[in-house]
């Protein structure tokens, strides 16, 4: 069975998927069936929060795929996430129809406000859900493809590539802040009403989005797992560890990089598309360089090159963020900053590394008691 | 005996005293007679006869009294009244139906009066002309260049022959260049209104290439009414010439703004050129070191509020030391464990940048703080009427160059610089030659951080100082260093200035934000073409 092959040596992944399945079953029940007031009741707010974490987790998996297995530290994945989000946001804007403040049948409010008379060409087609989803995948994909094609062909690597991806995000942020771009400028896209005819404020819609996020995360995880365990994945690891050697052996390094980088960007786009209907807004702040770096730290904390570690890191850090910004808003940046420093200094393999270290330690200790010590 | 004055010296002193007294008496009597005629003329001003009034104006104009100009200006403007009760001259401004009175001579408030209590001093057209010339002559002769300049600006293009004569007289002895320019311009503009064709042509000739807006307006006015084809032709040519000169000056101004922006970029990036370029450390907290420098300026100014003019000279070394020590602290506690792992360094220093930002927010304020500009930083250097360079930008441009060359000297001419380059090229070899690489690393990083702090002092004079200011510069700084070529200080200088000028050149037609985006996109594409920047390192160091 394919699933078995993918997860054979992936204890962490098995555990993560099992927990994900459990959460995906329990949360809707606890939200819909258990009545409010019962201590077991999960509020819709929490459901949405969990859904948001899951989309972040998918984004982190996408980053881990390129950083952990390909050695590319992309500081531009928030941009792909944001582009996917904007594509979905445009669909949701079109769904508002004439229910906006100005009541224009076609144009979103901000365009009426800017005195535009007709829909710009790049807004055409976004009234169809399938088109928006396609664009949420294609636009980040094409951008990553073009950027990656140029960068990998001329062998821009390491820190240079990181800074270039950061510049890309920064340029996109500046561009989306401009009102003339036609994406709502500073305010972004918001005030969404419904998706596929379902009211976005409805509990069942929220549960639906949550389940969709969980399902997509599972599928995305398996897809990444598929790449990692395939021959392509092994070449990718070879490139990460010794790029020049892999090239001399005869592998087309830039093709491998381009394929995985583009796939990762598409995954980030999907995560963005799932994120927007749950949080109800998308604005240029999503492109801020801070976001891109922050999500790298999720992966670093969870454990690089494990995939499931990315999920753990994303959920943990974001839970911490939600908690800290609520309880001690002053302390959050201190905590995040300290995390960056401490994890890179003392926890190079992240939380997943801690697990595997503990397991190895356990396994090595046990046989030692029974048999003679084997020198390494 | 020290107390006794010898006799002959006593005689000398007493005769000197007598002389002084005599001199003083003559001075007083001379002033007295002037005052008398001035006062008499004042009384004559309220005489109903225009002839008497004209004579009085002449006396006042010739009196040399410092109050004369203001008085005549008030008369010409129709604000000079005489109070019936005591025949005193008053300045009048209407207030709620009544008049508010001020003394015409010393300007003191005299309270309100009804319309019946005062009488306006009437003037006729002849008096107006007479007044205009008298005022022109009086103000043009003022010892204060600012007053002369204002006078010259007010009578710009006045075709009255008497005014022209006054201008010609003044022009012969005028020493202030700006006033001279205005006077010449005034004569040329007056020429334009002359009925004689050759005089008009002379005026056009003089105006050609002038950068004063009045010159272009004068030519436009002439062209709207002129019929003589020869004059029209000359005027057209002169106007084209003016346009060309103006656009030339505009280009110079754009260049200056570009260089100014470039100098800011160079300042922000130059510390990074050391930490990133020479040491290979990705320091994402670089922007926050700049911020620390700016906040040091703020704190220095808080400590010496009465010495703002000198605060920057204290702030520059202070910022260097504070930011440098912070840099050494960062290097010793974090970065030193991460050499050879650039991506991890990037993440760790980013964490430090977050901590520093929050530290400033918590300890000082989350809002921007007000850093004052010393008085010598404000104002601008007027090159010509169409081109003015603001001092703050000019000084910062010079300052950036100074910092750059100082760093160049440190790296190329000092023992520390030699060690820094040795460690950067081959750490193991340098160590085996006895270089204490750990100490060199700390000092190099401290140097880069200190320079960032100094940059912060300069930037505090141009932009807002707040907890987020560092983030605005970090990406630009990396762009500059990468564009210039890592490990090359000259590359950083050229790249910074080039990007600044390119940005400003694009701004007029693209807008500020789009220009910035285009520059970013350009650099992204440029790095694809030349991954090692404008001036790549060659040889062994390049393999690093």
TrEMBL record, chain A:
GO cellular component, as recorded: plasma membrane
Subcellular location: Cell inner membrane
InterPro entries: ABC_transp_permease, ABC_transptr_urea_perm_UrtC, LivM-like
Membrane-spanning parts: 12-33, 53-86, 129-152, 159-177, 207-228, 255-275, 295-319, 331-355
Alphabetical UniProt keywords: Cell membrane, Membrane, Transmembrane, Transmembrane helix
Pfam families: BPD_transp_2
UniProt GO MF annotations: branched-chain amino acid transmembrane transporter activity
Domain of life: Bacteria
Family annotation (PANTHER family): HIGH-AFFINITY BRANCHED-CHAIN AMINO ACID TRANSPORT SYSTEM PERMEASE (PTHR30482), SLR1201 PROTEIN (PTHR30482:SF4)
NCBIfam families: urea_trans_UrtC
Name this polypeptide is given: Urea ABC transporter permease subunit UrtC
The species this protein was found in: Thiocapsa imhoffii
From TrEMBL, chain B:
Record key words, sorted: Amino-acid transport, Cell membrane, Membrane, Transmembrane, Transmembrane helix, Transport
Membrane topology: Multi-pass membrane protein
UniProt xrefs under InterPro entries: ABC_transp_permease, ABC_UrtB_bac, BCAA_transport_permease
Primary location recorded for the protein, binned into one broad class: membrane
GO biological process: amino acid transport
Gene Ontology CC annotations of this record: plasma membrane
MF terms (GO), sorted A to Z: transmembrane transporter activity
Compartment(s) of residence: Cell inner membrane
Any Pfam family the entry gives: BPD_transp_2
Family in the record: Belongs to the binding-protein-dependent transport system permease family. LivHM subfamily.
Annotated protein name in UniProt: Urea ABC transporter permease subunit UrtB
């Amino acid at each position: 069975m394919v699933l078995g092959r993918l997860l054979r040596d992936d204890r962490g992944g098995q555990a993560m998927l099992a927990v994900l399945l459990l959460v995906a079953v329990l949360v809707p029940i606890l939200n819909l069936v258990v009545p409010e007031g019962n201590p077991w009741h999960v509020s819709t707010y929490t459901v949405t929060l969990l859904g948001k974490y899951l989309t972040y987790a998918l984004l982190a998996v996408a980053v881990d795929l390129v950083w952990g297995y390909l050695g590319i530290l992309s500081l531009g994945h928030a941009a792909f996430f944001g582009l996917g989000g904007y594509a979905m946001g445009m669909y949701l804007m079109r769904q508002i129809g004439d229910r906006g403040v100005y009541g224009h049948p076609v144009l979103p409010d901000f365009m009426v406000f800017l005195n535009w008379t007709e829909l710009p060409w790049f807004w055409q087609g976004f009234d169809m859900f399938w088109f928006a989803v396609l664009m949420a995948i294609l636009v980040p994909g094409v951008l990553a493809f073009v950027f990656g094609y140029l960068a990998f062909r001329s062998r821009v690597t390491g820190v240079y590539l990181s800074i270039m991806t950061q510049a890309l995000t920064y340029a996109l942020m500046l561009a989306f802040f401009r009102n003339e771009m036609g994406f709502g400028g500073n305010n972004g896209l918001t005030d969404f009403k419904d998706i596929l005819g379902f009211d976005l404020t409805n509990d069942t819609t929220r549960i639906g989005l949550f389940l969709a996020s969980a399902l997509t995360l599972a599928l995305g995880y398996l897809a990444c797992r598929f790449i990692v365990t395939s021959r392509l994945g092994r070449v990718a690891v070879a490139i990460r560890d010794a790029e020049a050697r892999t090239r001399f052996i005869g592998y087309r390094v830039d093709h491998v990089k381009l394929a995985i980088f583009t796939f990762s960007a598409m995954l980030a786009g999907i995560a963005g598309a799932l994120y927007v209907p749950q949080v109800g807004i998308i604005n240029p702040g999503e492109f801020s360089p801070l976001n891109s770096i922050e999500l790298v730290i999720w992966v670093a904390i969870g454990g690089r090159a494990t995939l499931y570690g990315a999920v753990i890191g994303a959920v943990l850090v974001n839970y911490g963020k939600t908690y800290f910004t609520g309880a001690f808003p002053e302390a959050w940046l201190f905590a995040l900053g300290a995390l960056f420093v401490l994890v890179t200094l003392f926890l190079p393999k992240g939380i997943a590394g801690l697990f595997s270290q503990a397991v190895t330690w356990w396994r090595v200790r046990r046989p030692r008691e029974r048999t003679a010590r084997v020198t390494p | 005996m020290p107390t006794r004055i010898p006799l002959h010296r006593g005689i000398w002193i007493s005769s000197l005293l007598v002389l002084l007294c005599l001199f003083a008496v003559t001075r007083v009597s001379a002033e007295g007679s002037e005052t008398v005629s001035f006062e008499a003329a004042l009384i004559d001003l309220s005489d109903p006869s225009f002839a008497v009034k004209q004579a009085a104006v002449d006396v006042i104009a010739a009196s040399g009294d410092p109050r004369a100009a203001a008085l005549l200006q008030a008369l010409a403007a129709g604000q000079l009244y005489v109070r019936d009760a005591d025949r005193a001259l008053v300045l009048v401004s209407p207030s709620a139906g009544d008049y508010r009175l001020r003394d015409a001579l010393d300007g003191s408030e005299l309270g309100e009066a009804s319309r019946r209590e005062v009488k306006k001093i009437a003037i006729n057209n002849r008096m107006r002309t007479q007044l205009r010339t008298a005022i022109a002559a009086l103000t043009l002769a003022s010892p204060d260049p600012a007053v002369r300049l204002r006078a010259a600006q007010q009578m710009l293009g006045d075709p009255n022959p008497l005014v022209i004569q006054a201008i010609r007289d003044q022009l012969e002895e005028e020493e202030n260049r700006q006033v001279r320019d205005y006077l010449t311009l005034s004569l040329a503009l007056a020429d334009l209104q002359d009925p004689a064709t050759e005089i008009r042509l002379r005026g056009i000739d003089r105006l050609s290439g002038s950068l004063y807006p009045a010159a272009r307006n004068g030519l436009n006015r002439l062209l709207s009414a002129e019929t003589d084809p020869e004059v029209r032709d000359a005027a057209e040519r002169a106007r084209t010439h003016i346009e060309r000169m103006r656009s030339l000056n505009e280009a110079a101004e754009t260049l200056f703004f570009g260089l100014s922006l470039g100098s800011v970029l160079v300042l922000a990036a130059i510390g990074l050129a050391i930490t990133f370029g020479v040491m290979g450390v990705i320091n994402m907290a670089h922007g926050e070191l700049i911020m620390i420098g700016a906040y040091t300026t703020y704190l220095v100014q808080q400590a010496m509020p009465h010495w703002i003019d000198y605060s920057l000279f204290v702030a520059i070394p202070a910022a260097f030391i504070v930011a440098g020590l912070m840099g050494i602290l960062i290097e010793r506690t974090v970065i030193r464990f991460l050499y050879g792992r650039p991506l991890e360094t990037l993440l760790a220093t980013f964490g430090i940048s977050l901590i520093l930002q929050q530290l400033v927010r918590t300890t000082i304020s989350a809002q921007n703080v007000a850093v004052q500009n010393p008085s010598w930083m404000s104002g601008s250097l007027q090159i010509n009427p169409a081109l003015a360079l603001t001092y703050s930008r000019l000084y910062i441009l010079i300052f950036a160059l100074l910092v750059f060359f100082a760093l160049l000297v440190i790296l190329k001419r000092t023992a520390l610089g030699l060690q820094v380059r040795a460690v950067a090229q081959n750490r193991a070899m340098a160590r085996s030659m006895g270089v204490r690489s750990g100490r060199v690393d700390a000092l190099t990083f401290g140097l880069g951080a200190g320079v960032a702090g100094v940059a912060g002092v300069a930037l505090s004079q141009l932009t807002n100082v707040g907890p987020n200011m560092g983030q605005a510069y970090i990406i630009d700084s990396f762009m500059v260093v990468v564009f210039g070529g890592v490990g090359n200080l000259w590359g950083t200088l050229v790249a910074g200035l080039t990007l600044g000028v390119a940005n400003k050149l694009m701004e007029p037609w693209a807008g500020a934000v789009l220009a910035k985006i285009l520059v970013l996109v350009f650099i992204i594409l440029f790095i694809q073409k030349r991954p090692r920047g404008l001036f790549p390192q060659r040889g062994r160091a390049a393999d690093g």
